[in-house]
Design goal:
The complex is a heterodimer of chains A (about 120) and B (about 130). Chain A has helices at about 15-35, 75-100, 110-120; strands spanning about 40-45, 50-55, 60-65. Chain A is of the alpha+beta class. Chain A has a single domain, classed as 2-Layer Sandwich (Ybab, Chain: A). In chain A, strands 1-2-3 form a 3-stranded antiparallel sheet. The longest helix of chain A is centred in the C-terminal third of the chain and has 30 residues, at about 75-100. With about 130 residues, chain B is mainly alpha-helical. In chain B, about 60% of the residues lie in helices and about 10% in strands. Chain B contains 3 helices and 3 strands, in the order αβββαα. Chain B has helices spanning about 5-35, 70-105, 115-125, and strands spanning about 40, 45-50, 55-60. The longest helix of chain B is centred in the C-terminal third of the chain and has 34 residues, at about 70-105. The chains are: A alpha+beta (about 120), B mainly alpha (about 130). Chains A and B meet through strand 3 and helix 2 of A and helix 1, strand 3 and helix 2 of B.
Chain lengths: ~120, ~130
Protein backbone atom coordinates (compact mmCIF):
# COMPACT_ATOMS: atom_id res chain seq x y z
CA UNK A 1 0.00 0.00 0.00
CA UNK A 2 2.79 2.42 0.88
CA UNK A 3 6.07 2.71 -0.99
CA UNK A 4 8.98 1.31 0.98
CA UNK A 5 11.68 3.39 -0.67
CA UNK A 6 11.85 7.08 0.31
CA UNK A 7 12.57 7.91 -3.35
CA UNK A 8 9.28 6.40 -4.45
CA UNK A 9 7.15 8.69 -2.27
CA UNK A 10 5.27 11.14 -4.44
CA UNK A 11 5.09 14.79 -3.39
CA UNK A 12 1.42 14.75 -2.51
CA UNK A 13 1.56 11.54 -0.47
CA UNK A 14 2.73 12.90 2.89
CA UNK A 15 -0.03 15.50 2.68
CA UNK A 16 -2.62 12.87 1.82
CA UNK A 17 -1.48 10.65 4.71
CA UNK A 18 -1.68 13.67 7.02
CA UNK A 19 -5.25 14.40 6.02
CA UNK A 20 -6.17 10.76 6.50
CA UNK A 21 -4.62 10.77 10.00
CA UNK A 22 -6.54 13.94 10.87
CA UNK A 23 -9.80 12.33 9.79
CA UNK A 24 -9.06 9.27 11.93
CA UNK A 25 -8.22 11.41 14.98
CA UNK A 26 -11.40 13.43 14.53
CA UNK A 27 -13.30 10.15 14.34
CA UNK A 28 -11.76 8.92 17.57
CA UNK A 29 -12.61 12.14 19.42
CA UNK A 30 -16.15 11.87 18.14
CA UNK A 31 -16.36 8.29 19.40
CA UNK A 32 -15.05 9.26 22.85
CA UNK A 33 -17.65 12.01 23.22
CA UNK A 34 -20.42 9.70 22.03
CA UNK A 35 -19.27 6.90 24.36
CA UNK A 36 -19.95 9.12 27.38
CA UNK A 37 -23.51 9.54 26.15
CA UNK A 38 -24.25 5.82 25.97
CA UNK A 39 -26.79 4.54 28.47
CA UNK A 40 -27.58 0.83 28.45
CA UNK A 41 -30.95 -0.11 29.92
CA UNK A 42 -31.90 -3.35 31.59
CA UNK A 43 -35.07 -4.53 33.28
CA UNK A 44 -36.10 -7.55 35.32
CA UNK A 45 -39.00 -8.69 37.51
CA UNK A 46 -41.51 -7.57 34.87
CA UNK A 47 -40.09 -4.05 34.81
CA UNK A 48 -40.04 -3.65 38.59
CA UNK A 49 -36.24 -3.48 38.65
CA UNK A 50 -34.57 -1.08 36.23
CA UNK A 51 -30.85 -0.45 35.78
CA UNK A 52 -28.78 1.92 33.66
CA UNK A 53 -25.17 1.12 32.76
CA UNK A 54 -22.45 3.18 31.06
CA UNK A 55 -20.40 2.06 28.05
CA UNK A 56 -17.64 0.74 30.35
CA UNK A 57 -20.16 -1.32 32.34
CA UNK A 58 -20.37 0.96 35.36
CA UNK A 59 -23.83 0.91 36.89
CA UNK A 60 -25.20 4.46 36.94
CA UNK A 61 -28.76 4.07 38.14
CA UNK A 62 -30.91 1.55 39.99
CA UNK A 63 -34.66 1.90 40.62
CA UNK A 64 -37.26 -0.36 42.17
CA UNK A 65 -40.98 -0.36 41.36
CA UNK A 66 -43.63 -0.70 44.09
CA UNK A 67 -44.02 -4.46 43.59
CA UNK A 68 -40.26 -5.08 43.66
CA UNK A 69 -40.02 -4.53 47.41
CA UNK A 70 -42.73 -7.16 47.97
CA UNK A 71 -40.43 -9.85 46.58
CA UNK A 72 -38.34 -11.78 49.06
CA UNK A 73 -34.83 -10.38 49.37
CA UNK A 74 -33.15 -13.37 47.68
CA UNK A 75 -35.38 -13.10 44.62
CA UNK A 76 -34.96 -9.34 44.48
CA UNK A 77 -31.16 -9.73 44.56
CA UNK A 78 -31.30 -12.25 41.70
CA UNK A 79 -33.61 -10.01 39.63
CA UNK A 80 -31.25 -7.09 40.25
CA UNK A 81 -28.30 -9.12 38.93
CA UNK A 82 -30.30 -9.98 35.81
CA UNK A 83 -31.23 -6.32 35.23
CA UNK A 84 -27.56 -5.27 35.61
CA UNK A 85 -26.43 -7.89 33.10
CA UNK A 86 -29.05 -6.78 30.59
CA UNK A 87 -28.11 -3.11 31.02
CA UNK A 88 -24.43 -3.91 30.46
CA UNK A 89 -25.24 -6.03 27.40
CA UNK A 90 -27.33 -3.19 26.00
CA UNK A 91 -24.48 -0.71 26.61
CA UNK A 92 -21.99 -3.09 24.94
CA UNK A 93 -24.29 -3.47 21.92
CA UNK A 94 -24.65 0.30 21.58
CA UNK A 95 -20.89 0.71 21.89
CA UNK A 96 -20.17 -1.76 19.08
CA UNK A 97 -22.76 -0.10 16.88
CA UNK A 98 -21.18 3.29 17.52
CA UNK A 99 -17.67 2.03 16.72
CA UNK A 100 -18.88 0.46 13.49
CA UNK A 101 -20.67 3.63 12.40
CA UNK A 102 -17.97 6.12 13.32
CA UNK A 103 -14.78 4.30 12.44
CA UNK A 104 -15.20 3.12 8.85
CA UNK A 105 -14.84 -0.60 8.36
CA UNK A 106 -14.16 -1.22 12.03
CA UNK A 107 -15.39 -4.64 13.03
CA UNK A 108 -15.15 -5.20 16.82
CA UNK A 109 -15.38 -8.97 16.40
CA UNK A 110 -12.57 -8.99 13.88
CA UNK A 111 -10.45 -6.77 16.14
CA UNK A 112 -11.02 -9.08 19.09
CA UNK A 113 -10.09 -12.13 17.04
CA UNK A 114 -6.92 -10.41 15.86
CA UNK A 115 -5.90 -9.41 19.39
CA UNK A 116 -6.57 -12.92 20.66
CA UNK A 117 -4.52 -14.36 17.85
CA UNK A 118 -1.60 -12.06 18.66
CA UNK A 119 -1.65 -12.56 22.43
CA UNK A 120 -2.34 -16.28 22.06
CA UNK A 121 0.55 -16.90 19.70
CA UNK A 122 3.00 -19.33 21.32
CA UNK A 123 6.54 -17.94 21.16
CA UNK B 1 38.56 -11.41 19.48
CA UNK B 2 36.96 -12.13 16.14
CA UNK B 3 33.28 -11.53 15.82
CA UNK B 4 31.33 -14.67 15.03
CA UNK B 5 27.80 -15.51 14.00
CA UNK B 6 27.56 -17.63 17.17
CA UNK B 7 27.52 -14.33 19.09
CA UNK B 8 24.46 -13.27 17.14
CA UNK B 9 22.79 -16.58 17.73
CA UNK B 10 23.43 -16.26 21.44
CA UNK B 11 22.08 -12.70 21.50
CA UNK B 12 19.00 -13.78 19.59
CA UNK B 13 18.44 -16.77 21.91
CA UNK B 14 18.71 -14.48 24.93
CA UNK B 15 16.32 -11.97 23.37
CA UNK B 16 13.77 -14.71 22.64
CA UNK B 17 14.09 -16.17 26.14
CA UNK B 18 13.53 -12.76 27.73
CA UNK B 19 10.56 -12.08 25.48
CA UNK B 20 9.07 -15.46 26.30
CA UNK B 21 9.43 -14.77 30.02
CA UNK B 22 7.77 -11.36 29.64
CA UNK B 23 4.85 -12.83 27.69
CA UNK B 24 4.41 -15.56 30.30
CA UNK B 25 4.46 -12.98 33.11
CA UNK B 26 1.82 -10.86 31.34
CA UNK B 27 -0.38 -13.89 30.73
CA UNK B 28 -0.13 -14.87 34.41
CA UNK B 29 -1.08 -11.33 35.40
CA UNK B 30 -4.00 -11.40 32.98
CA UNK B 31 -5.23 -14.64 34.55
CA UNK B 32 -4.76 -13.24 38.07
CA UNK B 33 -6.63 -10.06 37.14
CA UNK B 34 -9.47 -12.25 35.93
CA UNK B 35 -9.73 -13.78 39.42
CA UNK B 36 -10.03 -10.58 41.46
CA UNK B 37 -13.07 -10.03 43.64
CA UNK B 38 -14.14 -6.43 44.17
CA UNK B 39 -16.22 -5.84 47.27
CA UNK B 40 -18.85 -3.27 48.13
CA UNK B 41 -21.34 -2.97 50.94
CA UNK B 42 -23.73 -0.55 52.55
CA UNK B 43 -22.64 1.18 55.76
CA UNK B 44 -24.81 -1.16 57.88
CA UNK B 45 -23.55 -4.21 55.97
CA UNK B 46 -27.07 -5.30 55.00
CA UNK B 47 -26.24 -5.00 51.30
CA UNK B 48 -23.20 -6.90 50.02
CA UNK B 49 -22.00 -6.88 46.44
CA UNK B 50 -19.07 -8.47 44.62
CA UNK B 51 -17.75 -7.64 41.15
CA UNK B 52 -14.88 -8.91 38.99
CA UNK B 53 -12.11 -6.80 37.51
CA UNK B 54 -14.03 -6.17 34.26
CA UNK B 55 -17.06 -4.50 35.80
CA UNK B 56 -19.32 -7.56 35.93
CA UNK B 57 -21.37 -7.79 39.10
CA UNK B 58 -20.99 -11.38 40.31
CA UNK B 59 -23.05 -11.53 43.50
CA UNK B 60 -25.60 -9.47 45.42
CA UNK B 61 -26.78 -10.29 48.92
CA UNK B 62 -29.70 -8.38 50.40
CA UNK B 63 -30.66 -8.77 54.03
CA UNK B 64 -34.50 -8.93 54.32
CA UNK B 65 -34.34 -5.83 56.55
CA UNK B 66 -33.30 -3.61 53.60
CA UNK B 67 -36.82 -3.99 52.21
CA UNK B 68 -38.03 -1.71 55.00
CA UNK B 69 -36.20 1.22 53.38
CA UNK B 70 -38.31 3.47 51.20
CA UNK B 71 -37.82 2.68 47.52
CA UNK B 72 -35.70 5.69 46.47
CA UNK B 73 -33.40 5.15 49.46
CA UNK B 74 -33.11 1.45 48.64
CA UNK B 75 -32.16 2.30 45.03
CA UNK B 76 -29.52 4.79 46.16
CA UNK B 77 -28.00 2.49 48.78
CA UNK B 78 -27.90 -0.52 46.46
CA UNK B 79 -26.37 1.60 43.69
CA UNK B 80 -23.62 2.86 46.03
CA UNK B 81 -22.70 -0.70 47.07
CA UNK B 82 -22.61 -1.85 43.41
CA UNK B 83 -20.40 1.08 42.39
CA UNK B 84 -18.08 0.43 45.33
CA UNK B 85 -17.68 -3.25 44.28
CA UNK B 86 -17.01 -2.30 40.63
CA UNK B 87 -14.44 0.34 41.62
CA UNK B 88 -12.73 -2.07 44.02
CA UNK B 89 -12.53 -4.81 41.37
CA UNK B 90 -11.14 -2.38 38.81
CA UNK B 91 -8.54 -1.04 41.29
CA UNK B 92 -7.37 -4.56 42.18
CA UNK B 93 -7.03 -5.76 38.59
CA UNK B 94 -5.28 -2.54 37.54
CA UNK B 95 -2.77 -3.03 40.34
CA UNK B 96 -1.97 -6.59 39.20
CA UNK B 97 -1.61 -5.61 35.53
CA UNK B 98 0.35 -2.46 36.41
CA UNK B 99 2.91 -4.42 38.44
CA UNK B 100 3.35 -6.96 35.65
CA UNK B 101 3.84 -4.19 33.08
CA UNK B 102 6.43 -2.48 35.29
CA UNK B 103 8.36 -5.73 35.60
CA UNK B 104 8.26 -6.52 31.91
CA UNK B 105 9.17 -2.99 30.78
CA UNK B 106 12.82 -3.98 31.28
CA UNK B 107 12.67 -5.94 28.02
CA UNK B 108 15.76 -6.04 25.83
CA UNK B 109 15.94 -3.45 23.07
CA UNK B 110 14.16 -4.63 19.91
CA UNK B 111 16.29 -6.10 17.13
CA UNK B 112 16.07 -3.11 14.81
CA UNK B 113 18.26 -1.77 12.04
CA UNK B 114 20.93 -0.65 14.52
CA UNK B 115 21.43 -4.34 15.34
CA UNK B 116 22.27 -4.97 11.69
CA UNK B 117 24.30 -1.77 11.23
CA UNK B 118 26.33 -2.59 14.30
CA UNK B 119 27.28 -5.96 12.86
CA UNK B 120 28.07 -4.60 9.41
CA UNK B 121 30.42 -2.08 11.02
CA UNK B 122 32.14 -4.73 13.13
CA UNK B 123 32.62 -7.06 10.17
CA UNK B 124 33.93 -4.16 8.07
CA UNK B 125 36.41 -3.23 10.80
CA UNK B 126 37.64 -6.83 10.99
CA UNK B 127 38.06 -7.00 7.21
CA UNK B 128 40.08 -3.79 7.30
CA UNK B 129 42.18 -5.23 10.09
CA UNK B 130 41.07 -2.53 12.52
Amino acid sequence: MYPLEPGEIRDDEPERAGRQAERMLAGIEEVEAALDQIAGHGEAAAGQVTVEAAADGRVRHVAFGPRAVRLDSGTLAAELLTAIERAQQDAARQTEELMRETLDDFDPQEARTLIERITGTPW
Amino acid sequence: MAYTSEDDQELLDRFMAQSRRAMRRLKEAEAAAGQVVGEGHSADGLIQVTADGQGHVTQIKLDPRVLRLDRPALGTTVLAAIQQAQADGERKSRKILGEALDETSALPAPLDESFVRDRVERVARELLGG
